[in-house]
Amino acid sequence: MSENRADQIELLSFADNRLVADLVGEHDANLMLLEEALGVRIDPKGNRLAVSGAPQARARATSVLNALYKRLESGGALASADVRAAVAFADQAAERSDGDAGVKTPRRLISPRSPNQRQYLKALRSHDLVFGIGPAGTGKTYLAVAHAVGLLLAGAVERIVLSRPAVEAGERIGFLPGDLKEKVDPYLRPLYDALGDMMFADYVERRIASGEIEIAPLAFMRGRTLARAAVILDEAQNASVTQMKMFLTRLGEGAMMAVTGDPTQCDLPHGEKSGLADAVGLLEGASGVAVTRFTSADVVRHPLVARIIEAYDARDRRMRALKKK
Which of 266, 278, 269 is nearest to 241 (CA)? Predict the structure, then answer.
């Protein structure tokens, strides 16, 4: 709720003082971040925030503050990354805060932090096969896992199947010490971590024991039909063309599939074509298939990650330009 004044101040009133404290942040940290980014001044007054500045800046700040408050009302946490994301995409903040946009899991409310993330979640809900392509830190795998968890908890699927190719940075599992589980677990750890961020550890362990959640290397998918399941292939740029065809044809009745990866970080042997690039080129535009492409603007990790990605991308563009000369 807001009140416009002639002296360039807008008062925002919120019902819950405890949520206002979370919105403001410790030592007003969230407000200072918004002030610096949006060119406004924000003064807390009990359950009210006084926003002063130019009309357009006030409007953007008001939109962001209302969106962040709605996130808190929905049970979501508010970290500095959420504030930065809301600032970066201020024009879409009100739309993103729509309760239907997020996924409610036992441990947290997971909401899209950029237009591409919102589009991605919509695609996951409306298509049987979705490709999420882009750099690290853009949430492509995390959101796919969140969607799968939501489907399992709602009874829309009977199980979750998470998979990765066991190829990383030139290594293959045969050269690693230990039994098969010890060999492959390091490759699959990010998927365990994502599940643990959304559900309590004992619940995840019970579901893994019962077979309702399965985490396995890509090679284990051969010969299977995955019906009534939410299936995710992560790091798909490291799947060969043959492996990708094998995986995609596992899709069974009542199942949905998400395939995620970063084409710039392919660890396949030199000269071998990535199954991810091959599949996207072959299937994009087909009925039931959606492709979401993420960029450094969608990075939701430390702000420096986006700048690192941009620096590498800029160098790669320069090298390609030199090769053409």
Answer: 278
* Alpha-carbon gap, residue 24 to 1, rounded angstroms: 17
CA dihedral defined by 297, 303, 304, 306, rounded to 10 degrees? -10
* Helix, coil or strand: residue 215: strand
Under a CB-based contact definition with an 8 Å cutoff, are residues 66 and 12 in contact?
yes
- What would the pLDDT profile of 119-130 be if each residue is shown by its tens digit? 999 999 999 999
Each residue's pLDDT tens digit, 66-85:
888 888 887 777 888 788 77
Pairing of strands 229-233, 2-4: unpaired
β-strands 129-133, 289-293 pairing: parallel
E-only strand ranges, 60-200: 103-104, 109-110, 129-133, 159-164, 167-168, 171-172
Chain-centre distance for alpha carbon 218: 22
What is this structure's pTM? 0.67
The helix/strand/coil state of 226 is strand
DSSP helix/strand/coil, 290? strand
| 46 phi, psi to nearest 5 deg | 65, -120
